[in-house]
Amino acid sequence: MFATLFDLEVRLSAKTADHYYDRIEERLARPEYRPRALFERFNIEVIATTESPLDPLAHHDAIRDSGWKGRVVTAYRPDPVVDPEFEGFRENLARFGELTGCDTFSWNGYLEAHHRRRQYFKARGATSTDHGHPTALTADLSPADAERLFAKVSSGKASAAEAELFRAQMLTEMAAMSVEDGMVLQIHPGSFRNHNPLIHARFGRDKGADIPTSTEYAKALKPLLDRFGNERDLTIILFTLDETAYSQIWHRLPGIILP
CA-CA 20 to 30 A from 198: which of 9, 14, 107, 180? Predict the structure, then answer.
């Protein structure tokens, strides 16, 4: 890429790093290096981004209204309102309710809010959901047990184990919604996020200080697959950051696509 895109023909090293930086900086200022120009230059068919359910998707609307023919779609990334350990979780639930007109501090209202935002995202090109949970754990609680668990997490009083169980239950709930609306379910567990406390404190979450962790899949995914694994209308893409898992699960889990 350095040679073909930036005409850099010397090997990158400590001695040439400034040369690389200056050349790339100079090229990126040119019109032909603007994102849309590069999109067309490389014959890109589609780019998919991920956004929170709390995002109004104004940038996607702006792209659509600009008349540009490139295809950029969003994906539904509900972590801020699914993970009880996400910063500002209860405030996010309140905002979720404001956006959807649902009582997002009741279990049924909370699920309905997801339905509505998924439809909002689909109307703006979304074809998938995206879930970055710490583990691949799934659960299939009874409606009464799920409601009791939600009452605990939405009150801010859930333990770490209850937060993990809630995330597990929500993967199964998302699978149920995908069966209904056709959205592909993408799961990419196994990342120890914000591992560097200095980076996190200075710049906020999700700035690249993530480290893969060992992740178990077969037992973790079984509750979800027991319920939906044979559904013809459900597609699951399972990302594995722990490369040793491929030899364990390749072609063994029904209904799973591994990238």
Answer: 14
Q: Is residue 252 part of a domain?
A: yes
Q: Give the whole-angstrom CA distance, residue 89 versus residue 158.
A: 12
For residue 107, which of 77, 67, 151, 137 has the smallest C-alpha distance? Answer: 151
Distance CA 83, CA 87 (A): 9
- Residue 60 · residue 74 · CB < 8 Å: yes
Provide the residue range defining the domain that includes 215: 50-257
Nearest to 80 by CA among 155, 157, 132: 132
What confidence tens digit (pLDDT) does each residue in 199-221 have?
Answer: 888 888 887 788 888 888 889 99
Structural domain includes residue 238? yes
Q: Is position 2 within any domain?
A: no
Could you read off the pLDDT of 135-190 as tens digits, one per residue? 999 999 999 999 999 999 999 999 999 999 999 999 999 999 999 999 999 999 98
Q: Give domain status of residue 17, yes or no.
A: no
Q: What is the CATH number of the domain that holds 208?
A: 3.20.20.140
Q: The whole model's pTM is what?
A: 0.86
